[in-house]
Amino acid sequence: MELSCSSCCVPKLNLDEVLTLFADAGYAYFETFTTWTGAKLDAHEVDRADVKRRIGDHGLRLSSLNVENFPAETEADYAARADRQRRNVEWAAELGCRQVNFKGGARTEEDMRALIRGATDLARFCEDLPVVLAVGNHHGSRVQGPGDISRVLGQARHPKLGLLLDIGHFHSAGEPIPPIIDAHGGRLSLVHTKDQIGTRSVPFGEGEIDNADLLRRVSSTGYDGFLVVEVEAEDEANSPRYVREARPYLQTILDTIDA
Known about the structure:
Elements: E1 2-6, H1 15-24, E2 29-33, H2 48-57, E3 61-66, H3 75-94, E4 99-103, H4 109-125, E5 132-136, H5 146-155, E6 161-166, H6 167-172, H7 177-184, E7 188-193, E8 195-197, E9 200-202, H8 211-220, E10 226-229, H9 239-258
Parallel strand pairs: 1-2, 1-10, 2-3, 3-4, 4-5, 5-6, 6-7, 7-10
Antiparallel strand pairs: 8-9
Helix pairs in contact: 3-4, 8-9
């Protein structure tokens, strides 16, 4: 597995501040969003050539891009959203990023059907692109537990669609994580990890999540993609330090697994 760091760790920093922090911390890859963080990269809002230059100047590459989800909405709104999604998938490919994710959404039947439709349509659009998609679990959302995952991956069955395994959100939902890894290991497309006490994010090594055991189990499935670092601590002033400390902590675990 290769480490990447998410801009959600420092959501108030702009793109250049994030790139500087992550590069100085020793990361080679980063993950970001098309919405909400200061380092957001929406194809419709940025100077593409300038963004590519700035990323390259910092010696980083984009591992994965989180795009907006598919809510229940009118046909006209769906068509507009689907077009934005397609443009952002193409933008990810232009950046050399091969992984696009979506998660969240209201925990309703209507929103679940909207997700399955949107995921299916976007996966078909990706058939001729060097990009794969992942639907992620998120505590309190329509994809929270193993049953939700089975439904989405079962009904939106497409080789371009896999699972974003979010360890922190499964922990928040009280879901036993090893059985989920065992059941869906063949569909893993990306892994996000945190350390937590209950639902509260804490620095790695200070919480309840046994990342060493879980990542060993993930590795045993044959997964060798990105492991994305997330630290969304309450004391945001210390977040840059937690980002720096996370890399050697997790890299030691990965090196032990590979030994």
